[in-house]
Specification:
88 residues; mainly alpha
């Protein structure tokens, strides 16, 4: 969840269109993220940093889940009640 939250907040600040097909295919994310009416311009290096943070967050999640081993498991997550931080 943290990886998704950090990525979506960063992309919101930059004005990345969340409903665009490219967004969904690139990040595999489908969420009701509002369009930012006042996006902040970012540089290539800033966008690269957003992606590097996303990768680091996914790697941290992977390390946390390694303790489960190769056993099949399920995680039920009710997104209707999940709380997301407000977009800044």
């Amino acid at each position: 969840m943290r990886a998704f939250q950090n990525l979506s907040q960063s992309l919101y600040r930059a004005g990345f269109a969340p409903n665009a097909a490219d967004f969904q295919s690139l990040f595999g994310l489908r969420a009701p993220i509002p369009v930012n009416p006042s996006p902040e311009p970012i540089t290539y290096d800033e966008f690269r940093a957003i992606l590097m943070t996303y990768i680091a967050d996914l790697e941290a999640a992977d390390r946390a889940l390694e303790g489960f081993g190769e056993h099949p498991s399920k995680l039920s997550l009710d997104l209707a009640i999940a709380r997301f931080a407000r977009y800044r």
